[in-house]
C-alpha cells in the first residue's frame, strides 16, 4: 500500500471517529457501520498483445444494511485494497446523505487505461465482470457498479453485455450496472450528473446566510471566481454548468500536464476543445502557465474545486489555500489533517460525500428506470402538454389576448426525461444540504460541514440497522 492510499484510508476512518463522538449511537453498532462487510480481491489472466498479463482487481461491499450495494469501478495503476475500502465506505455515507436506498460498494482494477488498447481494455473489463458474476458480486438486487476514475459508459456497456450473456433469462438484467449509454438502457443526464450536483451544492452554500457571514461573502454565485483541478467528467461538467448557469468566472485550470491561469477568465468549453485538439491545456490562448503543476492550490479565488483524485490537499500544502469555499468534487481530495488547517484558517469545505453525490443519485434514477422498463416522462409528457395548452386557450378566451408562439412553446412543453432527472437531482441536493445544515447549526461542538455530513449519514445508517432489528 502506498503512503497516499494509506493516508486516504486513515483519513476516512479518522473522520468517522470524529463524527461518531458527537452521536449517541451504541459503540457496537458504530463498529459494525465502520468495517467493510465483504472484500473480494482477485487476480486473473488477460491476453495482452502476444502474452498474458495477470491483472489485480478488487470489489468491496462496505455495508449490507441496504441492498443492493452501489459504487463505481476505478481503473488506475494506483488501485489497492485500502483505497477501494475507503471509497466503498464513502459510498455508504454518500448514499445515506442523499437518501438513496443502497449500501456502499466500490471496485478497482489495477491498470492504467492509457497503457492499453480499446480491445485490451474490453478483455480486462469483461474478465473482471466474469469474476464478479462467479462470486455473486454483481446483480440488480445484489451489487450495482457504475463508472469511476478511468471508466465510462463504454466500460459499463461491456459489463452489461457480459452479464446478459451469463444471465440471459433475467428480466431486470439491465439494472446490474448504471452509467450505461442512453441507447443501451442508460438514462439522459447521467454523464453530467456528478458535475451538475457539484454546481447545485455550491449554489446552496452561496444561498446560506450563516455560511456567507462566516466567510464574508455575498449571496449568489454570479461573479465568483473558481479554480478547477481535474478536467475529467466531473471537473468538466462542474465548470461548464457553473459558468453557463451560475455565471461563475473560471480563472484557473489544472491537469496532469500543468496549471493555467487567467485573471480575465477562461471559457470552459474553449479550454476543453483546446485540450481535446492539442492533448494539453498548456498554451491555451489568453492564459499563462504557472511554474509548478501544484500551484493551482494557491491561486487566489472564491471557490476551489479539486475534481480528480484523493489526497491532493495535504498538511504540506493546505496552508497555501486562499479560497474560502473548497468543494470536494473528487472523492477524498483533502486529508483530515489538511481539513483542520483549512477550517482553522476560516475556509469552508463542502464534503465529498455530499457534493460528489450527484452521480449516485442519477444512477439510482437509472436503476429505477431499468426496473420499471420505461423511460421517464413517457406516461405524462403529452398529457401535461395538452393540459397546459388547454389552460393557455382558456386564458386567451377570457382576456381576448393571444400568447406569443415562443411563450406558448415554453409554457406548454411537457417534461422530457432529462428535465425530470435534473429536477430530481436538484431536489435531492437541496434537501440533503438542509439536512446537513440542521446538524451543523444544531450541534454545539460541530464547527465544519464534513463532521455535520458524517453525523447525518451515521444517524441514518444506524437507524436502518435498528429498523432491521440487527441492533436493539
The major β-sheet equals: 7 strands, mixed
Q: Widest sheet: strand order? A: 9-8-7-6-10-11-12
- What is the ordering of alpha helices and beta strands? HHEEEHEHEHHHEHEEHEEEHEHHHHHH
Helix share bin: 40-55%
The Cα radius of gyration reads 23 Å
DSSP strand count: 12
CATH homolog superfamily of the largest domain: Leucine Dehydrogenase, chain A, domain 1
Strand residues, percent? 5-15%
User: Roughly what is the average pLDDT, rounded to an integer?
Assistant: 91
Structural class: alpha/beta
Under the CATH scheme, which architecture of the largest domain would be assigned? 3-Layer(aba) Sandwich
Summarize the structure.
By secondary structure, this protein is an alpha/beta fold. The protein has helices at residues 3-20, 27-34, 81-97, 118-134, 153-166, 193-205, 209-215, 233-246, 268-278, 336-344, 352-355, 358-372, 381-399, 405-412, 417-442, 449-468, and strands spanning 38-48, 51-61, 69-75, 103-109, 143-147, 225-229, 249-255, 258-261, 288-289, 303-306, 325-327, 348-350.
Amino acid at each position: 500500500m502506498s503512503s497516499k492510499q494509506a493516508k486516504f484510508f486513515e483519513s476516512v476512518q479518522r473522520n468517522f471517529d470524529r463524527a461518531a463522538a458527537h452521536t449517541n449511537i451504541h459503540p457496537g453498532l458504530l463498529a459494525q457501520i465502520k468495517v467493510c462487510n465483504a472484500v473480494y480481491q482477485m487476480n486473473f489472466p488477460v491476453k495482452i498483445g502476444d502474452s498474458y498479463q495477470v491483472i489485480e482487481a478488487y470489489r468491496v461491499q462496505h455495508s449490507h444494511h441496504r441492498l443492493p450495494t452501489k459504487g463505481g469501478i476505478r481503473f488506475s495503476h494506483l488501485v489497492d485494497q485500502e483505497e477501494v475500502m475507503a471509497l466503498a465506505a464513502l459510498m455508504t455515507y454518500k448514499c445515506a446523505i442523499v437518501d438513496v436506498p443502497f449500501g456502499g460498494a466500490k471496485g478497482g482494477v489495477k491498470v492504467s487505461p492509457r497503457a492499453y488498447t480499446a480491445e485490451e481494455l474490453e478483455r480486462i473489463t469483461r474478465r473482471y465482470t466474469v469474476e464478479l458474476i462467479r462470486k455473486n458480486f454483481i446483480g440488480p438486487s445484489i451489487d450495482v457498479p457504475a463508472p469511476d476514475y478511468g471508466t465510462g459508459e463504454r466500460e459499463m456497456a461491456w459489463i452489461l453485455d457480459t452479464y446478459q450473456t451469463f444471465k440471459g433469462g433475467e428480466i431486470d438484467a439491465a439494472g446490474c450496472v448504471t452509467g450505461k449509454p442512453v441507447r443501451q438502457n442508460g438514462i439522459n443526464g447521467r454523464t453530467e450528473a456528478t458535475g451538475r450536483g457539484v454546481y447545485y451544492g455550491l449554489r446552496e452554500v452561496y444561498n446560506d446566510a450563516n455560511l456567507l457571514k462566516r466567510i464574508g461573502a455575498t449571496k449568489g454565485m454570479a461573479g465568483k471566481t473558481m479554480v478547477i483541478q481535474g478536467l475529467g467528467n466531473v471537473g468538466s461538467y462542474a465548470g461548464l454548468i457553473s459558468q453557463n448557469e451560475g455565471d461563475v468566472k473560471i480563472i484557473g485550470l489544472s491537469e496532469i500536464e500543468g496549471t493555467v491561469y487567467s485573471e480575465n477568465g477562461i471559457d470552459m468549453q474553449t479550454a476543453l476543445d483546446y485540450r481535446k485538439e492539442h492533448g494539453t491545456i498548456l498554451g491555451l490562448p489568453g492564459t499563462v502557465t504557472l511554474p509548478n503543476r501544484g500551484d493551482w492550490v494557491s491561486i487566489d479565488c472564491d471557490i476551489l474545486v479539486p475534481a480528480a483524485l484523493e489526497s491532493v490537499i495535504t498538511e504540506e500544502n493546505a496552508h497555501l489555500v486562499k479560497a474560502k469555499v473548497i468543494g470536494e468534487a473528487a472523492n477524498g481530495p483533502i486529508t483530515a489533517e489538511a481539513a483542520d488547517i483549512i477550517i482553522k484558517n476560516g475556509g469552508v469545505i463542502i464534503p465529498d460525500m455530499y457534493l460528489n453525490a450527484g452521480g449516485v443519485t442519477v444512477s439510482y434514477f437509472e436503476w429505477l428506470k431499468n426496473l420499471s422498463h420505461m423511460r421517464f416522462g413517457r406516461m405524462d409528457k403529452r398529457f401535461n402538454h395538452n393540459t397546459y395548452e388547454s389552460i393557455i386557450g382558456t386564458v386567451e378566451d377570457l382576456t381576448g389576448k393571444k400568447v406569443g408562439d415562443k411563450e406558448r412553446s415554453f409554457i406548454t412543453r411537457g417534461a422530457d426525461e432529462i428535465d425530470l432527472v435534473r429536477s430530481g437531482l436538484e431536489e435531492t441536493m437541496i434537501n440533503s444540504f438542509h439536512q446537513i445544515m440542521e446538524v451543523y447549526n444544531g450541534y454545539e461542538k460541530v464547527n465544519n460541514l464534513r463532521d455535520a455530513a458524517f453525523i447525518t449519514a451515521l444517524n441514518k445508517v444506524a437507524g436502518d440497522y435498528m429498523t432491521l432489528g440487527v441492533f436493539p
